[in-house]
Structures are given as structure tokens and as C-alpha cells.
Amino acid sequence: MCGIVGYIGKESALDIIIEGLKHLEYRGYDSAGVAFVEKKKIKKIREKGKVDLLKKSIEETKIKVHSAIGHTRWATHGSPTKENTHPHSDCKNKIAIVHNGIIENYLDLKRMLKAKKHKFSSETDTEVIVHLLEENLKHYPIFDSILNTINVLKGSFALLFIFADYPNLMIGIRKNSPLIFAEKENNFYFSSDIVGISSYVDKAYFLDDETIVFLNNSKYSFFDFKGAEKKIFPKKVEKSSFFIEKKGYKHFMLKEIFEQPEAIRETIQDRYSIERGEIDVGVDESLFENIEKIRILSCGTSYHAGLIGQFYFENFSGIETSVSLSSEFYYRDLEDTESTLFIAISQSGETADTLKAIRKIKGKNKIISITNVSESSITRESDAFILTHCGPEISVAATKTFTSQISLLFLLALSIAQKTEYIKKEKIISFLEELRKIPIQMEEILNKSESIEKIAYKYYQKESFLYIGRWINYPVALEGSLKLKEISYIFSEAYAGGQLKHGPISLIDEGTPLVAVAPDDRARNNILSNIEEAKTRGAEIISIGTKGDNELLSLSDAMFVISPVNEFLSPLLTTIYTQLFAYFIALRRGVDIDQPRNLAKSVTVE
Ligand code: M6R
């Protein structure tokens, strides 16, 4: 987690760093800091809290420099205090470092460095790196010292260094954590993510793993960890049509919820033709040959999308599919043959758990990834990737990427069906016709957001919620419950409707709010029985069902309706209600919706 930015050039470095950190705040926002060289010494400005506080402190100093590094933190080692805030420096205050990642062997290194009389001023793992470099510099020149330092580090790191004695030198290093380098007209930029610098550059170097960038006096070279020079070519920076602005919405989350129809259109368009009855998701079709099993790997919201995708693969192509949490997959001993296809789903493409899971099977099995970031680590380590075209998702709570992932999984499953002819072409065409209608049906729901707000306000003081769903809408219940707890801090739990009677029904008491996702699908009659059982015991029912379902209406204290839709696509509509419901509850509770406590958008630590 954490975001790092660096700049050397003609402009005001601190303005560029602050702007970059604001864009990277989704990676962590516990504290933020900058370092630069002033009068042959490293100077640091650091604040506990968000980047805006740091910005204020910097403005008060009126300092202008042309080179600086910055960091926005999601605390792993050491609580979010000012002392633990990056940048960190060595004993003599001659080197400053910012770091994204985790140094697994930091305790051993710290012990060794303390024995050599190094003084530590933080509890972070990061600080060992800068002291280790200081130690190496006592014996070797800079470049060798860098190699000696990074080659003993275990874990993941994207690093930037500046040096009080070499004000024109900046060194960037990437291993298992993302780092991008770019140059334009003698201005040089580093960032954890292209959004941190995309407004300044047209091309960028998306660094491979184990790369060092040595930038000195406006000249730069790339090296591997053995010190051999390597060639990297810049890539064009895609300027997104989705702007990183709130565009009048109160929160990014609300804006992103409302962007879903457009995100789905952008994601599916050009990937199918109803006239020809064809789908082309841009993946080499040989990957679809002889698949005996599919395993989906993902975390959080992407895991919920995978649970929905499971039904698509099983129903449209008859391939047995399982979905695993990437964080747990690593520990399993599986005997998969080459005929198992893996699908990794990750909005950011940087989730450490998912990356670790795919590295476990890489080379043995084929991996297709679905991400929202083209140059992310997960896309680069997969045999093929398919992008959701959502534009950047800034709110920590995933919304538009979830529904776009579902639409892509739908298309991917149909394209496998097209290849294997498991279902008839006419059926594929009718599915595509239904999918094409989804953005308009989503818009119908979004136009009713005021009524959702009113109902949410009736419930915002409740202390806990239950969610239920069945079959393809059980993952929607899981996702709705995750959204609610994530942004409103209200405890909630989701169950498959049929599981209530196996235990959780004992939680139901007079007035317990129960959100039931119950559209008109093959599970509708069964979930109505589950709702009835809960209502009999005092639950207040907030249901999501299909227009005209009067039986459900009569059981409900409040009901949200979707238009009739193909049962496989209903999650794309029911989800919108769960997102808006969670959003309006959190709004009423006055919490930080876009950046909920303790979270970060991109989870780059295990
Ligand atoms: O970038 P990823 O899709 O791999 O992220 C996975 C989860 O960390 C993410 O979905 C998380 O659960 C969201 N904050 C949920 O809103």
C-alpha cells in the first residue's frame, strides 16, 4: 500500500509532489510527508493525517525547490504517528527514502545495524533500508551501495532515494511493488501509479520487476539488480475519458455509482456484435481449448464478482468452476493439470494476495486476468488480460469496477461457449441483446436515487444488518453487506437465504433489519420463504425485487424494484440498490465515505 512520488525539474517540486500524492491517496491516507535538499541537508515535512494537512504545512513554509520525494502512508509497521511517517533518513540526515511495500527481514537487519551504532527514529521497516545504504556508503560508491542494499532486502519495495550531497541525483527502485518513471522536456517524474503524474506526461516507463532507475543530472539509465544496464521502452499514457474530479457529486463513490451505465457501455462495446452473433474479448482463442476446469482467484469485491462469474462459466460452457480467495489459495495443495484455466480478477491489478496466488501457478497453468489497469503487475504476469474500461475508481469502496467485471465475465463465458459450441448461437445472441439493455435499466434505477435515500435514512441508526440472497444474487448480498460495513462502520453479515435456518436466524429479533435480494429468478420462490421465516420472527424486510412482485411487496417494509431482466444479469441491477443504500446510510452517519478508516484502495501487502 502507500503511494510514492518523486520529481526533479524546472517546476516547483513540492506543488507537483502534493498534486501527485492527492491522486495517490487512494493507496493510503494515514499520514503524508515530503523530503528535499536544503543547504546540503535533508529537510522533511511530515504530517499525521491526510495530504491536505501536509499541503497546508508546506504552504506555510513558502519553500520552493526543484527536486523532492513524497509519500502517503497506509501504516503496516508502526502506528500512524509523525515519527513513523515517511520520508525517513539516515543517522547523518544525508539520505532520504520513501517506500511502498514491506521489508520482511527488517528485524534482523535492524539488529545488525543497531550493533553498528545506527540510531533509529521510527518503528518502521523502511528505516532499515536507509541505514543499510548509509552503512554500505562507508565502504562502496553509490551504485554498488545501492546494489548491496537492495539485494539483502526480502519482501516488496518501490523506493525513491535523494541525497543531500548529490542534489541532482534521484534513484528509483522496483521489486514487487509498482513504480513508474517518466520524462518530459527535462522534467523527471516517479510515481506508484500513472494517475499521480498523468497530467504532466504523454509517455511513461512502466518499470519491470527488479529495475533500478538511476537519474543523475538529467540523464537516466535502467539497471537490473545485478547492475547490468537494461533497455525499457516508454508507453503512451492513456488519458482517461473519466476525469478524476467529483464533477459536482458530493463523493467519488456517488459519482462512480452513477458512472456505471457508462462504464458498462465502455467495457462491453467493441467486444461483441449482435448482427454477426460474435464475441471477441481480445484473448487468443487457443486459451479456450480443452479447458476441463476453471479456477477464479480474487479478493474482496472482485471475489464477489468471481462468485457471480462462476455461474456464467458453469451454465454457458459447462465447465466446473471454483472461486478462491487469493489470500487463502496459496496454502492449498492442489493437483491441477494444465487443462485448468485460471482467471484472476483485480480492479487495481496490484493486490498482493492475488499476485502471490498467480505466481504460484504461473508457467504451469494459463492465466487470464481481468483488471482495470493495463500496466498493472497482475496484467503483466498473466498469459492474457481483459480490461474493464471504467476509468480510475477513486473511492475506496469498489462500485463501477464490480459491475464492469461482471459484464466482462459474462462476455468471457459466452466467448468460451462460442468456441466450444456448448450453447447455440441464437441463445448467445439473446444473451447479448439482454446485456445491451443493461445500461439503460441501470439508469432507470439511478434516476430513483432520492427514494432510496429516503428509505436509507429510516434505517441509518440501526446497529447491525443482515443481508440474504440466493443463487446468483447471494454474491450480491455479500457485496451489499461489504459495502455497508466498509463505508458506514455498521456491522452486517450476509447469508445465502437457505442458511438462515441453520444458525443465523437466532440473531433475528423485533426490528432487525434484513436486506433481501430477491428478484424474479429460479431462486425467487425459495427466498420468499426465507423472508417469510425472518419476518415471522420480527425482522424488518428491505427487499430488492422485480417490478410487479406483489407477494414480495406484501412481505416487505420497504421494497426496491428492478425491471424484468434475464436472471443471469439481475446482479447488475440489484447491486445498484445495495450500493446506494450503503452510501446514503453512511452519508447520514457523517463518516468519511471515500476514504473509510483503516482502509486503502490498493492492497499491496499480504
Ligand atoms: O484491486 P482489487 O480488486 O484486487 O482489490 C480487492 C479488494 O481489496 C477490494 O475489492 C476491496 O474489497 C474493496 N475496498 C471493496 O470495496
Notable characteristics:
single chain; 606 residues; alpha/beta; Glutamine Phosphoribosylpyrophosphate, subunit 1, domain 1; Rossmann fold; 3 domains; 7-stranded antiparallel beta sheet; 18 helices; 27 strands; 35% helix; binds 5-amino-5-deoxy-1-O-phosphono-D-mannitol
- Using only C-alpha atoms, the radius of gyration works out to 26 Å
Bound molecules: 5-amino-5-deoxy-1-O-phosphono-D-mannitol
What is the name of the CATH architecture of the largest domain? Answer: 4-Layer Sandwich
Structural category is alpha/beta
The top-level CATH class of the largest domain is Alpha Beta
Strand order of the largest sheet: 3-2-4-1-10-9-11-15
Low-confidence spans: pLDDT under 50, at least 5 residues?
none
The CATH homologous superfamily of the largest domain is called Aminohydrolase, N-terminal nucleophile (Ntn) domain
State the major sheet. 8 strands, antiparallel
Number of strands: 27
Counted by DSSP, the helix tally is 18
CATH topology tier name of the largest domain: Glutamine Phosphoribosylpyrophosphate, subunit 1, domain 1
